[in-house]
Write a sequence for this structure.
């Protein structure tokens, strides 16, 4: 049997046979009782309940995978990060009646930080898209950036999170290219996976391109999706106080929200509007 210690670097692995992929996963208490090596570095009390549970479940799932994919390791890195950040805060809370609980959290913070560091070191210089994406976005690793951008240039990326990050990257120096990538993101968006902040990214780009009508339209769509309060006076000022145009753009924004939530943006008429050439300055 191969040994796989998930709390460190994915180098060792304990594989058990006879586990069906359709089998219902046990609760975290049962997982820890039957697989103590998956939980021994974690704290015992109820702080960071969600982060700890997610980490345990993902570790348990990975235990039965002989060769985890880059995406699965990437998810494990994210889970470790979230747990480590949460338990760091919890470790700073002093428990007066039970100081051993504080000590346990401090221990868990130290061990999870070590586990995270080891996994980061193990995955550095990986050519896997997801692991390169992690090192680019976390450490500004230029070699990892090249891997991700080359994959995008070769049209090998269909992950919405990765595409949105690349769109954000181009936003710094090429608003038009950033828009094209954001529109790729909208093509594969629906109500469940869409982040309204992407509309603000598009809106900022259109403002840089001096297309204030689309700046307004995208900002309005963001407001509709997030229910955020906004200065209507400033919104109207974007289109020079033209209330007739405002009514038209408000309807367009509602249409945009509908097609995004229905997952129909790629075939919508409003996509063509967003693809129009920037106005001449």
């Amino acid at each position: 049997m191969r040994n796989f210690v998930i709390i460190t670097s994915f180098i060792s692995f304990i594989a058990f046979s006879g586990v069906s992929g359709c089998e219902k996963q046990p609760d975290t208490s049962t997982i820890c009782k039957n697989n103590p090596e998956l939980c021994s570095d974690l704290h015992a009390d109820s702080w960071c309940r969600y982060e700890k549970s997610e980490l345990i479940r993902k570790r348990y799932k990975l235990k039965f995978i002989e060769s985890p994919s880059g995406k699965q390791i990437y998810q494990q890195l994210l889970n470790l990060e979230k747990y480590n950040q949460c338990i760091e805060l919890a470790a700073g809370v002093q428990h007066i009646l039970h100081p051993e609980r504080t000590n346990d959290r401090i221990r868990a913070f130290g061990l999870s930080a070590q586990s995270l560091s080891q996994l980061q070191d193990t995955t550095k210089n990986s050519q896997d898209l997801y692991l390169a994406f992690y090192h680019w976005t976390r450490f500004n690793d230029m070699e990892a950036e090249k891997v991700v951008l080359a994959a995008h240039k070769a049209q090998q990326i269909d992950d919405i999170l990765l595409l949105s990050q690349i769109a954000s990257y181009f936003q710094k120096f090429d608003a038009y290219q950033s828009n094209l990538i954001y529109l790729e993101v909208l093509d594969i968006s629906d109500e469940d996976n869409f982040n309204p902040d992407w509309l603000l990214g598009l809106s900022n780009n259109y403002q840089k391109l001096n297309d204030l009508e689309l700046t307004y339209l995208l900002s309005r769509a963001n407001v509709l999706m997030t229910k955020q309060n906004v200065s209507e006076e400033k919104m109207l000022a974007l289109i020079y106080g033209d209330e007739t145009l405002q009514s038209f753009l408000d309807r367009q924004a509602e249409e945009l929200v509908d097609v995004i939530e229905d997952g129909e943006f790629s075939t919508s008429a409003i996509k063509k509007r967003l693809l129009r050439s920037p106005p001449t300055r």
User: Anything to note?
Assistant: Confidence is low (pLDDT under 50) at residues 1-22. The chain has three domains: 28-123, 126-157, 168-274.
